[in-house]
Amino acid sequence: MKEIKAATNNFDEGRMIGTAGFGVVYKGYIDGETTTVAIKRSNKAQGHNAFQSEIKTLSLIRHQNVVSLMGYCSDKQEMILVFEYMPKGTLFEHLHFSNEQQKMPFSWNQRLHICIGAAQGLCYLHTGMKFQIVHRDVKTSNILLDENWVAKIADFGLSKIDPTNGSTKVMGSIGYIDPEYCRLLKLTDKSDVYSFGVVLLEVLSAKFVVNYNSNDNEENEDAVSFVEWALNCYEKGDLENLIDPHLEGKITPASLAKFMEITQKCLAEQGLDRPSISQVLWSLELALELQIHGNSEDRKVISGNSDLTLGVEFSEIMMPVGR
What we know:
Helices cover 35% and strands 14% of the residues. The chain is of the alpha+beta class. The protein folds into 2 domains: 1-84, Phosphorylase Kinase, domain 1; 89-212 and 221-296, Transferase(Phosphotransferase) domain 1 (Transferase(Phosphotransferase), domain 1, Orthogonal Bundle). It is globular and about 60 Å long. It is found in: Cell membrane.
């Protein structure tokens, strides 16, 4: 514990870089301050059993699209997890606070690359190990970005290993939780797929999933969920209201169609009607190919009159906040 306190300057508030399920995350330095890490200090609400469960889950995972656990410490009342540091912060921050933090908004290509990386991480959790892991809290603030903008799934405080017997208590984040899971109390990998469908809509629109403020002139807006509103916009052809203005005129129709096709399937009411995450991954890769290799007709403006720019690289101008 002495090393953890030294790494965080005794949990200095100035070192706080975010919150996670059941805890606060600090930026820390170890190995003689040569290695930067993210240190999660779990609170008492998590409980020792849940803490041990998270360690068990994380110890099984080794994948380039999942944040790596570097160590842990359980000392008296403290429960500490040490992770690799993700200097580019969260997908949530880049979608919603790019203007405030003077970051360049992501292009459509960049957003697709990030979604593909996150889907690869989830695919590994669902099918890449002996036991299936359901994350149960998939959202943009749990998708972190490393120094090369590679997306990684984070925060396994609510995850379940091999949830064949379902769950008696619904856990997750408002706006992202699978309604079938809420209704039947049955947790499956398709619950993660639903949550990821919400993430895809958030990536396209750059609107908050909760309090999304779709239209200041619309009455009773709060009575409609973000998912209902977004899907209604797409079905009515109201793309101007749905798509992030920064993407105006920069998405090929074929890419958008493929993206929305798989997104709608992710958000099916019944889990059996939803695709597997591997199918989602395949569709996102195809959406990227359709964007990059769209023909001249596909380059017509989706909404607006700006020209499509392909192959835009990630820029250091984005000034990220690490996690």
